[in-house]
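Below is how a single chain appears once it has passed through the pipeline. First comes the sequence as given, then the structure the pipeline wrote out for it. We keep one example in the README because the format questions we get most often are answered faster by looking than by reading.
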Amino acid sequence: MEKLHAVIKDNELEKILQWISPLEPHKRHQDIRSKRLDNTGSWFLKRPEFEEWYSGDAMEGAVDPYLVCYGIPGAGKSVMSSLVIDHLSNIPCINGERVCVAYVYCDYQHEVRQTAINIPSVLLKQILVSNPKHLSNELLDAPETQKKKNVGLKINETCEFLKLALNSFNKFFICIDALDECKAEHRGDFLRSVSELSKHLESSARIFVTARPNMKVPIETALSTCPRLITLEANAEEIRKYVSYQLDMDVHHGDMDESFRQMIRDKVVEIADGMFLLPALQIQTVLEQNSISKRREALNTMPKKLDDAFQATVDRIRQQSLSKSTQGLEVLKWIFFAFRQLTIAGLRHALAVNEYDTSTDSLDLNKLPFEKSLTDCRHGLVVVDQETSSIRPVHKSLQDFLTKEHETDKLFINGHCENFSCLSDLFETQLQNNGR
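Resulting structure:
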């Protein structure tokens, strides 16, 4: 980093890095890894497909540069991506070998910014920041020179910069998570850029991708190859460990005997259906109950399909007290309709506004809902991203469920996408301008 500061002076560094790409995948990475239980996914790193992909000698034709993991919604693909990124980043260099790791988390909530140019550009940004000691001053100086021309980077220029940068390494890894969440119009161009890079730097390239199974044909078409594949499913022992952790954290842990706790573990694991997300919703449904009898009933009536679990959770939100139910559904509505991820502050301001009250142009700060109340009524459907102080749906599959419910007039009947999206953008812009 010192070398980069030596080339790019004073406060220009952050401006230039933001100019290269506005994406900040490190924040998403930190949020995901902070929620990952210890030793999660160690079995995956020992799979022969992964070990051969990582350690094989491409110069001898012993390895395909691509490893693609397909998994159904909620199977834990992003958690596995975070594990792979950490694993690759922490492997010690041998005999002075220069290794580089760059990554991107595709995210449907950021699809406007995740363009065919911004995604490869963020890979370049990471390389410039993380590995400047291996790069020439000419390459480090190139983005600043380009910025002074007052023109944005083009995709071919970014790819050329990437080739120059990656030529400095004996091996480089690019990890791409949730490729299915990248808009189709950008996904093909991005994959073709990756394909060109891997062909140009065949002996050193390693590309790791996760996606839903419906991406198999588009990926193979864009890459012009049949990559090494792994079907990713939630590991039963890791689900059991997760459920045990939730049971240990339960405030009523001492009120249940071990045989009942074991029954909960066995039942949740049995109907997990290859997902982490479904067990997470199921164990929360059980532990929300305030007696052994009610917990036993919840255990025996747990939904066995993800959409059914979402529906049951929405129903529980509706069954709360009027104030909690109203706020819970409003939180879901604002998050659902927003074009981009909402900050906690932005959501609080949005909820404090009465669209029918035109008596004043200023917001009464006393109407801001308590921050903790935003999550008290969520029942696990929304999560707070501590790295960005934002709030988001627990998973894209929830957004898909809410979309189907809205389009069939079962949910948010009075909500209008354009109105909510414009208002949420307005609140976020005002907060940024106010430095809040």
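The first helix runs from residue 2 to 7.

See the next section for the split statistics.
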